[in-house]
Amino acid sequence: xxxxxxxFPGTNCDLDTANAVKKVLGIxxxxxxxxxxxxxxxxxxxxxxxxxxxxxxxxxxxxxxEPIMDDLELxxxxxxxxxxxxxxxxxLTERKLLPGSLLKNSxxxxxxKNVELKINxxxxxxxxxxxxxxxxxxxxxxxxxxxxxxxxxxDSIEDxxxxxxxxxxxxxxxxxNIAGLYNKNLNILGLMPHPERAVDIKTGTNxxxxxxxxxxxxxxx
Amino acid sequence: xxxxxxxxINKEEKExxxxxxxxxxxxxxxxxxxxxxSEHCSYKSSRHWLKKLHTEGIQVIQGPGENAGVVxxxxxxxxxxxxxSHNHPSFIEPYQGAATGVGGIMRDxxxxxxxxxxxxxxxxFGELSHPKTKxxxxxxxxxxxxxxNCVGIPTIAGETGFDISxxxxxxxxxxxxxxxxxxxxxxxxxxxxxxPVVYVGAKTGRDGIHGATMASGEFDDESxxxxxxxQVGDPYAEKLLLEACLELMQKDAxxxxxxxxxxxxxxSSVEMADKGKVGIELNLDNIPTRQQNLTAYExxxxxxxxxxxxxxxxxxxxxxxxxxxxxxxxxxxxxxxxETNNIVVLHNGMIEADIPIKFLxxxxxxxxxxxxxxxxxxxxxxxxxxxKPKDAILKMLNSPNICSKKWIWEQYDRTIMANTLNDAGGxxxxxxxxxxxxxxxxxxxxxPRYCHADAKKGAMQAVAECWRNIIxxxxxxxxxxxCLNFGNPEKPEIMNxxxxxIEGIRDAxxxxxxxxxxxxxxxxxxxxxxxxxxxxxxxxxxLIENIGVLDNFGSLNIGDSIYMIGKKGSHLSCSTLEEVxxxxxxxxxxxxxxxxxxxxxxxxxxxxxxxxxTSCHDISDGGMIVTICEMIMTDDRxxxxxxxxxxxxxxxxFGEDQSRYIxxxxxxxxxxxxxxxxxxxxxxxxxxxxxxxQLKINDSIIISNNDIRDAYESLIPxxxxxxx
Lengths: 221, 724
Known about the structure:
The complex is a heterodimer. By secondary structure, chain A is α/β, with parallel strands linked by helices.
């Protein structure tokens, strides 16, 4: 399996994500710059967390307009699997590869804590190693994670069963407690929690590992 | 007011300056003298005394005098760390003041070649009920978080205190810890006549001009007018600068490097040249600027953030340029090293300044200020009212200095880098070294109440508490940094306290082999003549060689026995209990016996490393019962405590006697534990056992976990979430 990580200048979870992929899957991912012309051949593309261009404007707004995102969109349409974590999720919604948007947390404060999340479905590329409705513990660390969509969009997300994860308890104002969601084709996942920080029990939880393991599972079976 | 006075250069200093130069200085030169001779840059009141600190040990690679201190952690790895104050700017503009404090200390660490792996802070405010505290606390916390979270360094530990003496001057002390290999440590000493001096980082603007001078004076009712001297932080620019610098450091191009902190271009260029005993020539025409028509004076004094100065190997200049361009960071050759021993500043074809460097450094004014011991004879200790233990426990947990600071630390990213081992629990922060079994424990500590009552004892206690917190995590304490926050040193009593503080730190760090490797002094923390309590914040680091010893450590098992290491408590003078019940409390802080401190600490460290005990916490503010409450809350367990003599209950529960720990242990290991402690001569007391829930003392006092948690967690959210 070829894993590619795209880093923007202010990305700060690229090394954590690469380490997690290495630790969990034994695969060395390729880290590319957003200034590169093309994304190399990949089975999984990850946009990690951070502050892509400082995010003084809307989080991810500038990054979503980088030329490399044209290639990412193309790959997404071709069915390549893509994960956007935290800032990556914000970039994917800014690019409209995922519906809705991520507003400032309802507290207007940065929130960093381990949260309980419920896995909404386990029949996707990213979640086959979880149980449906399983509750997992993964850290969040964001200022803008308050998921918002207009009613029609929200209805269609729910009708199409696009929700990936929900916060067990309200945390940042997200509608329907949405912490992560898929595109309609289920090959693109965006989520606010940081699975790459939850791959070693010594750091408190390893509940994030199975997102990466599920991906590998898909390619090895 | 003449031009010298308006630059805070007093009459004697003016004479000295004119004498040195033998001519009238230019406006730019006056500016340069004023910042270099400011208390903040010259340490003119403290320099003489700081030399007395204990700074050596086999673990020390670099002590004070560089951008940060360096200690050896084995396997060719080194830890680089320092703490710095950003008090004055944070009071005027809390968000930017605190944010740039974090940015500045991070640059001190990565300047030396280390990637930052953790941030800590010690922040102090006026009374929680003071109208300005809410504004300052929310701004400072958001600023610390906003900067560290964006650069992507976890903020893993710290302390927050409230006291009336900070009503007019809050404190923001930020600490950064970085990791490097021993063969990749970079210093600021310039060398090589003709070598290029290179400016990298953000563009220079008019912000922060005279920040160092502002930070060297007291406040009055018009301090708000200093707002333009506060710098504005851009953590995104810092992130790019960090990555670019670390990349260049792999390319053998850098001769010396120094961040532009207080007094910006002036102090960085002077310090680099001074260390190398060379001269430096700057051509300001080449400085990247944010706006047009900046004068030489403004460029030399600007404290715009996220900038560095380097001396490069000439043949590597192109390679360096490519690295910085790749990261979208400005790169400009702005001068060269000369053999003149002067700093020469050129702008628009004119010589704006030409000053022998020694006048700005070694020959800068130094004062051995008058000192007088405080007269404590008229102070009387107010008796404590009659206290019901149950009420007192809940009242203590709900008091500003004891209560949970979760509202604060939940705004700091603590899990980024994925190596934080004890998120939100334990006495110190703990971060694993990537790809090893090692971890670094870190803590910052001081009890200003003790320091105010007795400067020397208080300083010793701060060092000892930091050592204790690191021990409680199972780590071997290595070295410390400090921030010495005081009022006006021209007041003999404050100067005396400062000197006693140095003595206290020295004695404790010698006794505990816990040397000082870096630090900072912040004086003139006064408003309208009212000084803060002495606050010598101590930041320490310790090493765990094998994190395997922590498997299953830190969890309370029902049936475990609870022991106290050290003697039963009784000392209530100067305690948190006194503060909570009597308000001011500053007569006799607890004695500290450094021999016993070391004995108990090493005994506890052995117990953790031999995996004999299941958890360990030090006893500090609030005494034994506060420690126990914190322990059972973290693990959602209960405890039963037995106090033999009811008449001694208050002292045993709340006494703040020093050098003590609470440990828990499975009953079958008690005999080994006792044998080990007796052999070492460490005193211990059985005080109770772990239960499934509720706190029970002598069958007569019962408090539910919910009540404990409510008391502990409700105070700060209830104050802060009511933003008026």
